[in-house]
Target: tRNA wybutosine-synthesizing protein 4
Amino acid sequence: VQGTGSSSAVSKCSAAARGYIQDRFLRLLAGRRRRRAPLIHRGYYIRARAVDHCVQDFLLKTQSLPRTQILSLGAGFDSLYFRLKDMGLLHHTVVYEVDFPNVACQKAALIRGMKELSALVGDTGGAGLGAITLSGEDYKLLGVDLSELSELERTLEEAGLNNAIPTLFIAEVVLTYMENTRSDALIQWAAERFPQACFLLYEQVHPEDAFGRVMQQHFRQLSTALHSLAPYPDCEAQQRRFLGKGWTECSVMDMNEFFTCCIPEDEQQRVQTLEPFDEYEEWHLKCSHYFVLAASKGMEPSWTPLLPSVTVPRRAAPVGVAGSVPAAVCARLSGVPGLRRYGHRSVLVKPDVILTTGGFGEEDGQHCRVRSFHVLSRHAGCWEAVCVAQNIPDKRWGERLYHTVSRLSDTLALVVGGRTSPSSSGLGMLWLKFPQTCNALGPADVAVELVSLQPAAEAAALRWRHSTTEMTFKGEQYLFVYGGRSALEPVLGDWYFLHTPDLSHTEIAVEGPVPESRHSHSACSWEGGVLIAGGLGAAEQPLGSVFLLRELERGFQWQTIETHPPLVPRYSHTAHVHEGKLLLVGGVWFHASSVPGVTVIDLMTGLCLDYVIDVEHLEWPLMLHNHSSVFLPDEKELLVIGGGGNCFSFGTHLNPEPVSLSLSSILVSH
Model:
């Protein structure tokens, strides 16, 4: 548990070095320095921001009072006191920090040995006494095990804590490491002993979905199990916990809600542009698995730091579920490491042949951008996979994520766009050519050729997380390239009509209200036009709109498809059309109470039904984002290949094997 404190100090220090948080004291307290990934920076930014938001609100609301105090439980190597003191915010506030005795002793020695820190604390009267390892006028550092409540109370009293004045308790990923009877007792003790008190809690939530299971497994491996998750699995349960233990007011938000509601728009944009970033799914999943809670009692006026500063729709009611879809492992494909990947694409090139390309995953025993293709072919009802080595002159063309693959004929497919790193400029187009005759592709049977584009069409290819959809206009075949993002533009809303097979850029008139820019949406061919659903918009907010690009006499028209109930906004899903129904598979949404399964939209009536995926027969967490899926209409079956991603600091999760979803019960013809 003590190790988690120093690891978190290093992560906060790295985030500060990149400009996410302004804190010059972190580097003095963190000890070792290590640069973390952008996803980690964002995660620690939102954590620091939530704590700061509530602390500053407490100081603001109590500034006219003669004395207040802050008690930070399990403070570790946190810099809160030094920041507040440096900003001149502690005129009448004493900060008490409590942690394990050896952590408190280490921190006290650090402070004493560094002028910049010891000058702020002031005269500490020599060495610490007993559990009080450092004592300045407005700063007390105590070494006590939080689970020993009577010992904690005795030491706090000795250090001068005053039960009669307004007190803010802070527990930042601390209580969950304690046995529940002890953490509950601590919450109740704080409410009973302090007539005017506030409590700020930041920790994990939602243990049972795929991300939650990966998160729990990570903490178990560190021998730091998260005890609070079983009795308090969601924000509402945590709220009930505090209200039942003597607190009279309590509000709670997950971190997606906090980021949207409590961080000003210009600050959101500043953070979103600090460094190249392309892990939106994992960022939003991390945020839906952490919450900030503010409880209070006896405060006049009442303490409510978690009131939204902007008007945003509150967490809607849980998604209504129309039924479930069974998931089963594809037995013959379980040993194929090359199918464990994300950000890849799969396409049905012939009735029993699927080609999977690109992405990030396992190759030659390591995690990397996958260069080889995989071909899945079905014989006597069973799928088998073979790896196809590529022969590409420039290796960058073989290492791409978030591209598209469009089948143009039995012998030809087109790869559009994609990226290597998020700062790369996009990767152009490739032809994939297959033999005419055989039904199954052999290891040497895919020829790859670079496409030389006319200058007018080049911009269509320099993007990723876009869509490329086959369509017709006046009987001619076109590819419609839409949206996505690029190294320069975080979200695109433009489109291109590419005439096949020569891929010449054609200007075709489009009327109607233009959809807002988006990436990570889905696009399907339907009745000669294109259906666009969901996606991530300009402010990194999921979208719930569905548009049809419909052919008219002179060109096309954007038309909104109204759904009822309204489609829950989502992105990073896949989509298919079957007999007038749009099927949306998986993705990421902000409804933390559940994860997206399969949504069926009737394109005639707009009726929108959500089905959960029954994962009872899977022995591992199924992550349905950054996956690919292929719909087999005769069997009414969906084959889901790959999916997953970097689960914050909890490790990379790749779905270990393809999964079959049987849709026959929900696609009954009426």
Notes: The chain has 14 helices and 38 strands.
